[in-house]
Amino acid sequence: MKNIYNVVVLLLTDNCLKQIDTSIESIHSQTFEQKRLKIVAVDNGSTDGTYERLIKYARESELAVFRLRERFLPTRLLCHALSFLDYINYKYITILRPGDILYPDFIARCADIMEKYSDCERGILISETDIREESGKLKQQSPIFTNNCILRKKVHYPYLLTTGFEHKVQSFYCRGMIPLILPELPFAVDHTAWFKMANYLFANDCIYIRESLSAIRDTAYEDPVHELMLRLYQITRCEITSSHRPADMPPGYTGKVPSAKQVRDRLCRLALKYAAQAVNQGNNKIADKILLFIEMVEADILNNEEYNLVKQAIKNSDHLEMEKFRPAWETVSPPQGAVII
Amino acid sequence: MKKAPLVSIMIPNRNHAGFLGTCIESALNQTYDNIEIVVLDNCSDDNSIDVASRYINRGVSVCRNPHNIFNNSYKVLSRLTQGKYMTLLCADDLIKPEFIKKCVNIMEKNSEVGYVHCERDYIDTYGKITELDPFYNCSFIAPGHSALPIYMLTDVAQPAQCLFRRSTFNSVHGYDTEFDHTNADKELWFKLSLISDYAYLREKLALIRIHEARESIIGFRNFFHPLAMYLSIDSQAKRGALSGCSNVVERLPAAFEKLAGESLQIALSCLKENDRGLAKKYLLFSRIVFSDIVNTENFNNVSELCARDDDTFKNSNDDVENVFVYRKRSYPPPEGYTMIEENHYQ
After folding, report:
1. What is the pTM of this model?
2. With contacts defined as CB-CB under 8 Å, which chain B residues touch A188?
3. Which residues is A139 bridged to in the sheet?
4. Within an 8 Å CB–CB cutoff, is residue B57 touching chain A?
């Protein structure tokens, strides 16, 4: 017998009148059975008419709306929003930001894969996404991995963190898999899509799908030094809390995992790229800091060719050929030990 | 007569069998009557559970986690207890008999106060006490917002020096389990100050244990601590800005400068342990967060020590000891404070 279940699309809105229509339309055109699709909008005290627009949708369709009196920071908002879902019967959930769109078969496809592969440890699916520019134009990203795969929590997760700051993914979760730890992360106040996802992965194995099934709004990352620190923090945390010796790995995993050195190498390569970018933008102060960061992460980098190139360029105010800095997020094979699907 | 409100003393423990007994005794010896004591053993490898269970017939409730759940113990503890007020007493620390009574008195008289700090001394493994200067120069109650910037710079107190109002503690979602202790403490004080007033008792009512196995020291070794510090200071400034506290934003540069200074101190202690690799990391970190640190004497001293070749380094123990001059402290209270007299809480 075919499984019957509901899927929630959670829409968190905050003064985004211009963006909600496209997002809601994209949900309405899903190929997944519409009556099993629950759209829940939680409004963070918008004052630009967003809330009124949501009410209009609620009157015309099955959309549920909640409005918060007080404004919350992003993570706390998510936490509150999830509490409104307690009385809804659903199996899977995805969170959509206003302005982002889901391609018509996003939900059907993700739900299918989850039905096939998810279990009590695999509660998250991440899929590649296109980038939606301000003008509405779509830009493709190069996927993280060459294959669909299942990544083991903690051990494979630092590897994901060394992907470019601009890289985005869309997530799809089993109910109850968005961890309770989320609202407590005080510095998640300015989280990027990546960081948000990163936290979820602590407790979950993750299914990676390399198809692009959605389009996400382009957002700039903040200070690159801050981004790098955030990543190093997360990587360190994984290393400390990871108790997954190869022997502990569940069946299906080969038992080999990427080494700490491999992860740090990738992080340094990523950092070098941003240092070079900063040099070309004439921001030597940031470039300097990034070089210090790199040295801090990997003391033996001082002999590296690219590292010295950037160093020279800062000194002589040269322009750097970005070609030399291979993007750290070029598509690679899944990390050692991941299950290919 | 109205009954005194219930106070929960929550004791998380991991592998502190040697200290746990004295710690529980100090909780049992309180002059305050209405107390519940819960020990939560975080799946220790030593005989902690035997030590703790000796106190069951004296009313202490003893629980044990299925495996090491790190700081999440605090969360479990707060669910295991009911008191109107609560304190987190780490199993290696001690509280003095009057601690609960005095803190509760302040809280009962001032309903806006969400948490009270008292003063402390250090105690080592063998019970030797080191006296410390109190942080502030008088006892007071201050608006939480004016205390905020201080927690970007320093932690002021550790959990064993603090009594919380449960309602305030719950509305900030409790202790941050993501952090190592030093950071989690500061972060908790910061969050509490965002929504409540703060009271400070300039009386030494707690003893904080200083020993090798302290989690905070472990945090320094794996380089987790400075990164968390950096990120939390940054986010505190952002949250302060959102709550309209300009004093928080203004202190951001000072907070980074302080963090850089602390990194130098940690670099120095790494040198004492002969770990020059780690010391260098801390030196680099201090430059990232505060680039002008390179012009300070402390920085030059520490980096000179780092750069010595192996032979000279072996003979430089005395230099390592003498690099820093430690400041004494006793600061004036935060703005808008009201001084409190001793008879107010006796």
Report:
1. 0.83
2. 235
3. A131
4. no
